[in-house]
Amino acid sequence: MENKVANIGFDWDFNKTPQVILRLLARNGGSMDKLKLIKMIFLADREHLVRYGRPIVGGQYYTMRLGPVSSEFKDYIYGKKDGFELPFGVDGYTLVAKEPANDDCLSPSDREILDEVYSKFKDYSPVQLVDITHESKAYKANIPSENSRKSILYEDFFEDTDDKNMLELITEEQEIRDL
């Protein structure tokens, strides 16, 4: 992208995160592999950003050996965020819902994209989803060196789409807000 004035950014939505997880776990019978969930969140955040101008959970995205991930989301999943009651248990590599999903904090577009991503990728293995996310231009532009991570710009999420209108709108909005 040419003439970038400022990078766009979105804070991690810690209020929505538990309900996003519970919605996907519920759709999957109450449990799901951690890595599969993390990959679905990247795919959902990217699709929601491109279509509606914001990610669902957001945060600082990085590329790692297994693909793109929201750092805050990954820390939350792995119990590294202090002060949060996790609405799921962990059984090895599997997250298991401890309570039903409550969609009140999710917008209709959040639910739409989460359901689309789940329906499209539910039958994929975690490794297949890693391969799919490794094919994204956001990952390819930011491949990390061995055992490291590399920051991804939200602008890179738009590299897999021809329509850049939403990116222009987001950039303008954030430039105005930053003034």
In short:
Helices cover about 45% and strands about 10% of the residues.
Count of structural domains: 1
* Count of DSSP-assigned helices: 7
Helix content: 40-55%
Model regions low in confidence, pLDDT < 50 over at least 5 residues: 1-5
Task: Please report the distance between the alpha carbons of the first and last residues.
Answer: 21 Å
Oligomer: single chain
SSE topology string:
HEHEEHEEHHHEH
Mean pLDDT: 92
Structural commentary:
This protein has one domain (about 15-179). Helices cover about 45% and strands about 10% of the residues. A hairpin with a 2-residue loop joins strand 4 and strand 5. Strands 1-5-4 form a 3-stranded antiparallel beta sheet. It has a 3-stranded antiparallel beta sheet with strand order 3-2-6. The protein has about 180 residues and is of the alpha+beta class. It has helices at about 15-25, 35-50, 70-75, 110-120, 125-135, 135-140, 165-179, and strands at about 30-35, 60-65, 65-70, 90, 95, 150. The protein has 7 helices and 6 strands; from the N terminus they run H-E-H-E-E-H-E-E-H-H-H-E-H. The longest helix is centred in the first third of the chain and has 19 residues, at about 35-50.
Structural topology:
Layout (H helix, E strand, L loop, with lengths): L16 H11 L3 E3 H19 L8 E4 L2 E4 H7 L10 E4 L2 E4 L10 H14 L4 H9 L2 H4 L9 E2 L13 H14 L1
Antiparallel strand pairs: 1-5, 2-3, 2-6, 4-5
Helix pairs in contact: 1-4, 2-4, 2-5
